[in-house]
Design goal:
The protein is an all-alpha fold and about 60 residues long. It contains two helices and no strands.
Length: about 60
Amino acid sequence: MFPFCFEWAWDVGHIIFMGLLYMVLGAISLGLLYAFVMTWLKVTGRDKLFERLWIRFPITLW
């Protein structure tokens, strides 16, 4: 199922599946990176930069 396998075929199904897989993995990675950066800023005491970034990019689920 991966490009390094001998059975790999570049058909539409594989391209769509791998494209969606990498989009989901990218979104999860960006979310984790954002959480780590914001946590690091809060822990190290850089509250000014933390507040500036939080006001500019508020991510809320409600």
